[in-house]
Amino acid sequence: MFVAVPLVCFIFMFLIIYMSSWKSCATVSLRHSFLVSSIAYGVMITIFVESLSFFNLIIFNWVLALWGISCFALAFISCVLIFRIRPKISFKAIKISFFEKFCYLAVIFIIFVIAIIAFLSPPNSWDTMVYHMSRVMHWIQNHNVSFYPTHILRQLHQNPWAEFAIMNLQVLSGGDIFANIVQWFSMFGSMIGVSLVAKQLGAGRKGQIFSAVIAASIPEGILQASSTQNDYVASFWLVCFVYFIMLLKNRPTLAHSLAAGAGLGLAVLTKSTNYVYAFPFLLWLFIPGFKNPGNGLLWKKVFMILAVALILNLGHYYRNLSLYGSPLGPCRESESYTYVNDLFTVNSITSNLIRNISLHIGTPIKKINHLSEKAVMLAHKFLAIDVNDPRTTWHLSKFNINGPSLYEGDAGNPLHLAIIILCVIISFKTRYKVRPIIAGYAGALLSAFVLFCLFLKWQPWHSRLHLPIFVLWSPFMGLVLSENVNERVLKAIIIAFIVFSIPWLFANGLRPFFGNKSVFSVKRIDRYFVNRPSIKNKYLKAAEKIKFGVGRNVGLYLGIDDWEYPFWVLLKSGEGPPIRIEHIDVTNASSAMYKKYPFNAFVPSDVIYVHRESGRLCVECFSYQKYLSMRTGDKMHE
Prior knowledge:
Number of helices: 26
Largest sheet: 4 strands, mixed
Number of strands: 4
Strand order of the largest sheet: 2-1-3-4
Distance between the termini: 47 Å
Radius of gyration: 25 Å
Structural class: mainly alpha
Order of helices and strands: HHHHHHHHHHHHHHHHHHHHHHHHEHEEEH
């Protein structure tokens, strides 16, 4: 299967990096080599996509050729290294306790179950249907990642690396069967990364293992790891960045600088919230430079990190700058609302801190949730600020505290939050004040969360954006717990993490492992609509009408939050001449793309019109002539 070529490519890359450490007589772990290989792989994907896009060559033959050539080259280098080094592979027996073995098996089990779910389920989360997978299909159709006319601007300016990776798998496999694997791989990599971060903090083997268990059991992470959201991808690259920042603080080498810069570049190319999360860690690296301005070596490394990160993002920056006049995209998602706070006061920041933390305190007991909600309301009265103040609250959002959720859009992490608070309290009462790296790490994480609350308006879906922070707290928790908690209590806490993860592992709201809606029992086409089963028949009827027609050009008229991806799945399936799909009558900033080929030459034969009428979602299919007649007569629904 052609999709295996990138995997083989990664394996050879890993072998080269690991064997290179033997050649230099350096002591490098398998885990370290995995992170370096992952970063190099991420950079390779970025270069491949941007290069092929420049020449309009994102097509099967060229994508396969590029990966195939790379695979043969890396295989050749691997063989040369093996011949020259002639490594003697020996296995050193390590005595580990029964409980440590149990922890290893628990992490493997969690990752294995999620892999099954990711493979069997198609992409089906809300954002996936609106823009994550839709943009992938437009890129494949256009043979490049350039901007195009769309009613959904998020398809353009949102950071694209996760979709770059998905697109390569999509092109080589001819479908979305491997689309969820990108997030799953990122979870697997994050488990390795957090164990190394824990090691840098000073944790022993036990603390490193516990760090991985804690990270693997994050409810929000478990739900996302089998999806095509990008928060776990963003978490993985951020973990890589933080790990190499920590190495740089001890050994400021060129290799560590390049790895940290690439990690930062991939992190922000995946998700814009990583600008906020990464900044305190960069500042943590800068601090010695402020204390000693004459430390030229450090400033050179810092400059190199920023330069590498900038280079990796140049393509995306250029596309945004060309359309919006800003490398980061539009300052507003629409004319009516923006992601960034409009009020910056101590009270407004405190409000956002309280509300963001509150996303993770929901319990199964309604009375407790009600009391917690009343406490938050009372705090806002004291702060003299409305709990739903539009200056600090996302468009039309309303604050409330619900019970535990099995959906990736709003699942909280209550146990992890409680243990984070416990570990921070313990750290204040222990010797950690004389271990600067631990204090600096915790301070950077706390600062990252405060900055997040400072800049971004509160949303009821922010818990998924907190995932990188929870992942990075895991090494801190693993260290503190392993060094300061009684052995029996420690085992009870770790077992609690594992046991409490079970509902999210097996009862995922969109991709359940068991039950009558299981990924094993529900047809794949039905799984696309599991989040909105009421619209399935409407989409199927519209697609069927077009597929059995004579036209091959389909125009889409959608709202900014309507599902687009199912149309691609339904219209591209089966045999017959290819169908081209484009957005029509776009009036936002992307309408400027109508001046360019092929959009200026596109004439739809049919139009799919999605609108809302009396609160209902309507999906209608017209011939283009009828659509024009309706537009001229001003009879279109608004």
